[in-house]
Amino acid sequence: MTNKILVLCTFKFLCFTSSYAITADDILREARKHINSDKWSYASCHKLLCGKNKCNIFVDDVLSNVGAKRPKRDSFFYPAIGANEWGKSNSEYILNTGCYQHIPSFSNRQKGDVIAFPVDAGSGHVGIVSTGSQYVSAGQYIVEEKDIPTDRSRTIWRYRYTKTGC
User: Fold this and answer.
1) What's the CATH fold of domain 23-159?
2) 32, 47 in Cβ contact below 8 A?
3) Distance (Å, rounded) from C-alpha 164 to C-alpha 154?
């Protein structure tokens, strides 16, 4: 687990630090904070990716913003893994972080989990599980909270929250 550090300062010189664990609520809260944003839309040029799907970048940015360890490719320009990689239950990129647990049963999903919808050809889709049967993800135009499709293959990953690390 990655610990977040909270720094509280009074005046200019007196600061206190405190660390705390990343929780599923933190991940979901961060994802929901961006609902209706077009920053990760297909048309946007976020991270110089104009006219590209950015659902995977959205998930990577959410995890980064809460201080979670993220799976990375060996690319300086575009290190976030793709939606189809999130869709692999045996992804070496994800497993090598030591921070994620594959959840084999869809019925065991929880808020804050990463949910991926892999496809055989092209790009899959990825987002953050919300409540019930919904998830938050970057769509073509905006970040939305919508129903989880029931007619697609789904892969669930859970960020592990322990006192000794992820």
Assistant:
1) endopeptidase fold (from Nostoc punctiforme) (3.90.1720)
2) no
3) 30
pLDDT tens column, 111-127: 999 999 999 988 899 99
pLDDT in tens, 44-64: 998 878 888 999 999 999 999
Listed residue (79, 110, 55) closest to 101, CA to CA = 110
pTM score: 0.85
Q: What is the 3-state secondary structure (H, E, C) of the chain?
A: CCEEEEEEEECCCEEEEEEEECCHHHHHHHHHCCCCCCCCCCCCCHHHCCCCCCHHHHHHHHHHHHCCCCCECCCCCCCECCHHHHCCCCCHHHHCCCCEEEECCHHHCCCCCEEEECCCCCCCEEEEECCCCEEEEECCCCEEEEECCCCCCCEEEEECCCCCCC
| 8 Å CB contact between 15 and 27 | no
At residue 1, does pLDDT exceed 70?
no
CB 142 within 8 A of CB 103: no
